[in-house]
Amino acid sequence: MEGAGAEGLMEPREGLVRPGSFPLRGAIELHSEAPNLEFLELAREVGLRDVVIKWPGGPDSAPVAQFANARSPGGPRFWGGVVLDRPAGGMNPSAVTVCGSRGGKFVWMPTVDALHHRRINAQSADGAVRLLDDDGNLLPEVCEVLDAARAWDMVIGTGHIGPVEAERLVDAALAHGIRKILSNHPLLLRFSLETIRRMAGRGVFIEHCYVPNHPKPFDVSRIVEAIHEVGLGQSLIADFGVFGRDANVADALAVHGLDAPTLRALTTATPARVLSDE
Questions:
Q1: Confidence of residue 2 (pLDDT cuts 50, 70, 90)
Q2: Could you tell me if residue 2 is inside a domain?
Q3: I need a surface site. Which of 25, 39, 54, 123 has the fewest CB within 10 A?
Q4: How confident is the model at residue 10 (pLDDT cuts 50, 70, 90)?
Q5: Per-position DSSP letters for the chain, written without gaps between them
Q6: What is the distance between the alpha carbons of residues 31 and 243, in angstroms, rounded to a whole number?
Q7: Structural domain range at position 192
Q8: Are the beta carbons of 185 and 208 closer than 8 angstroms?
Q9: In a domain, 224, yes or no
Q10: pLDDT for the residue 15
Q11: Long-range contacts of 91-96 (CB under 8 A, 24+ apart)
């Protein structure tokens, strides 16, 4: 792992992960599912640098990002985007165009309506938003979405689609001139390390999200292993919960033994590259 040798890692410590194990001041949050204005105020209080507002199963968040930026000059910069779940019309290039025209930065593939999400959560596939036809080829509307995203220089997030869909999407996105692709918490979606490594090798940024102390178990050491596999340059962590109140993935990794420079790269340096115009 670049920038984190053996001295940067220690054995996991026992006990619950507590909020504040790693300070969020200056961090970039690429995966906030902020439900209300309190989140925006807390982002300012803890000193976040940037916040991306993502609403799975909800509307385009670009307008609320514009509102938040106008309401809190000098505070965090807020960014919006559109999740291509059913409320947005699924694979809807018009929704992407509208979002981009209002300053939206991100286009996420379906999340709660993704076929893969439905399957791994034992939910009905009826009405799921699909990317592939029965032969495994990308549907034409996916390419239309990519064209619209490229026109507004937006970041493509993979949402909750499956590994086969994700690799097909990466192929098409690169062919369509998309400059930034973010694989959203692939470990939680049961992607293999081999798949993650292949995507990172093609320039895809790998996001890791995790809720410590959650009843549903997850071994945080898998995140550390994945970071080792692809390096800090393509790895980031996100989804910090209720800022300053909930224990988050940064806290969990700090307790696990990652050192401060490594965590700063994961929370700031790599996310900044996703948001940059370079």
A1: very low
A2: no
A3: 25
A4: very low
A5: -TT--GGG--PPPSS---TTSS--TT-EEEEE---SHHHHHHHHHHT-SEEEE--TTS---HHHHHHHHHHSTTS-EEE-EEE-SGGGTSS-HHHHHHHHHTT--EEEPPSTTBHHHHHHTT---TT-B-SB-TTSPBPHHHHHHHHHHHHTTPEEE-TT--HHHHHHHHHHHHHTT---EEE--TTTTT--HHHHHHHHHTT-EEEE---TT-SS---THHHHHHHHHH-GGGEEE----STTTS--HHHHHHHHT--HHHHHIIIIIHHHHHHS--
A6: 12
A7: 24-275
A8: yes
A9: yes
A10: 56
A11: 91/129, 91/131, 91/139, 91/141, 91/142, 91/144, 91/145, 92/141, 92/145, 93/141, 93/144, 93/145, 93/147, 93/148, 94/148, 95/60, 96/145, 96/148, 96/149, 96/152, 96/154
Average pLDDT value for the chain: 91
Strands 181-183, 155-157: parallel, antiparallel or unpaired by DSSP? parallel
Q: Check if the beta carbon of residue 189 is closer than 8 Å to that of residue 181.
A: no
The 10s digit of each residue's pLDDT in 53-109 is: 998 888 899 999 998 899 877 889 999 999 999 999 999 999 999 999 999 999 999
CATH number at residue 239: 3.20.20.140
12 domain residue, yes or no: no
Q: Report how many domains make up the chain.
A: 1
Lowest mean pLDDT: which of 98-112, 161-175, 240-254?
A: 240-254
